[in-house]
Amino acid sequence: MTVSPLGREIDRVDGRSKVTGAARYSADYPAPNLAHAYVVTSTIARGTIRQMETAAARSAPGVIDVYGPDTPDRKLGLRLVPGAGEQFAPLADNLVRYRGQIIAVVIAESFEQAREAAALVTTTYDEQPARIELGDGPRTPVAAVGGHPTQETILAPGVDSIDAALAGSEVVVAADFHGPAQNHVALEVHAVLATWNRERTSLTMHSGAQIPHTHAQVITLQLGLNPPPTVRLIAPFVGGGFGGRIVPAGEAALAAALAYRVQRPVRLVLTREQEFTVASHRGRVDQTVRLGASRAGVLTVVSHKTTTEMPTVGAWNTVPAESTSGMLYKTPNLHLDQGQVVLDVPPTAAMRAPHEAMGSFALETAMDELAVATGIDPLTLRQRNYATVSPRSGLSFSSKHLDDCYRIGAQRFGWRARRAEPRSRVDGDWLIGMGTASAIYHGDRLPFPVGVRIRLSPDNTAVISSATADLGTGALTMLAITGAHELGIPLRRVTPEIGDTDLPPGAPAARSTATANTVAAVHSAATAVAKALIDLAVTQAGSPWYGADAKDLTYADGRVRGAGRSMSFGQLLSTVGRDRIEATATTQAGPELSEYEFYCFGAHFCEVRVNRFTGEPRISRFTSVVDIGRVINAQAARSQIVGGVIFGIGQALLEENPFEPGSGRMAAANMADYMLPVNADIPKIDVHMLDRPDPHINELGARGCGELGAVGSAAAIGNAIYNATGARIRSTPITLDKILEHLT
Length: 744
Description:
By secondary structure, this protein is of the alpha+beta class. Helix content is 24%, strand content 24%. It has a 7-stranded mixed β-sheet. β14 (285-293) and β15 form a beta hairpin. It starts with 14 loop residues before the first helix and ends with a helix.
């Protein structure tokens, strides 16, 4: 009997190709007669282009052409696609909506020639005052997201208002929080290779995508051609996404339109600086959390108000409160008020745990402040307010073991050694503190079909295909592991295929949905191909079961059995003269979506050391215990939680990209100025996974985990800094200058 790889420590099946350089990313693909494009971006935040001088660029060596908004004979004809990324078509008009917007593109024989010519393009503007800061515009309600209201109040019987509930609480904590703009900074910058067929009816694109079929559909609509072309998008390897590749940015449609115009393959690669503006960012957020409780620490009120940025070009509706304050703790009175301010800044996008990472910093910091105000241990306070049903919907969670995350995490970390009084643990020049925080993130199935195809061959191998994406998360290996488990064959006999729109539409590599939805589709496809094998066995002459009743046959462990005989699927295919057999299945969520709340949970524990003279914070230990359902690949799942925690370390201590007042320039739009965690910033991160299947989500009970680690980890760090120093910092990043204000 084959031992299933499910839940074991499995090396990535694509690991060798990546470390040897054999894996090709979007900018690595060759093409004959290739032309190169380079974009020109705006240097003002708001206004109109008065004049653009392109003659010098056109006459530069190797230049094929220059396209801008003021050249009618060179209009690319791109269309706006409502609801998909930036809400304007690139180069369709002379309006400037933010600093760093694409306003022209040069196409040349080489990348270097295109870049040099782009530097020769000069532009004059009619500039207008730009709205840059959250205080520059009126606050309006966020458009409803996912059917949920963004302003919501739940009151206990006899309570007139949230303010009245707070007034009646024995202990009240109220605090304001601020989160800055941040950037995805994926290792692979946005890059596109666009190639049309000779008749210009079919387009092949190599472009990093988190949802390949969505990218292809959006680009088809953006091109606005009649009849629409067939668009195939290929992205088997993607060098990071974190939400920045959910929908295509403007450069993808530009490359496709240029290739159509010049009738040559076109490659367009953004520079790192262009990536910071064109490819979106996490927007800023102001938050106010008010908590009411009894003196025993039992919550009576949770109120969470947020104000986020919404660029004039549209993009991401950020709702930081609903999946954190709206879900984590039991409370009879709940108030969520999520608003936004329209600003003249680059587009925003989802960024790993897009709502929850920000919302949890405010909520979990406020919970720590409530623990101080009531004199109750911060972990005990969280346990005392444990929610078994959703505070908003009243539905039970499909599976929840957060209480065990608290208990096991405290044991592994040594939480009992924590001292409640700040600055009470000292080691030479270093103040030592401990902090904790809860984590929560969606783990649900999707209400639309996700497909998987399984093809079996006479050599007893299987190819398992689905057009999901692997951003470095291990999705390719997850597909192989699940396929090997369902078919009952060794992992080495399985070849996974992903990242190609010629494959069945796969689960989005976003919102931590890929695993939960893909394993369900693999299960259905394996069931379907087993049935097809049995049908083949009883209907094909030459089969030892020809003419038998299909009900008397079974499939397991890669073999068909029945009537005292057993044969591998490869032997059966060879016997009946078939070179393959395949089946495709699609699955989607059913009524369980309205019966349960599907979430993943976790508990973070952090120890920091803060220099008492310089204010320098260092993280010395970190423990995370997570409840993510059944674990598919223990090695990859642990890596994903570690990666999420590192995101939290960046959020807590380093990452911000301020906008220059007036000009709208991002101050840290390069890898030199944008501060990211490096090896020296990261301690040993202890991750423990409960590995308890969710009985309601899919046949294996598996949920996603990629974003959970980023939720609450920043708050755990901030809470540890408070415990070490007595400095309560409510704006991120928590830099040493902010700490010094409290130490001197």
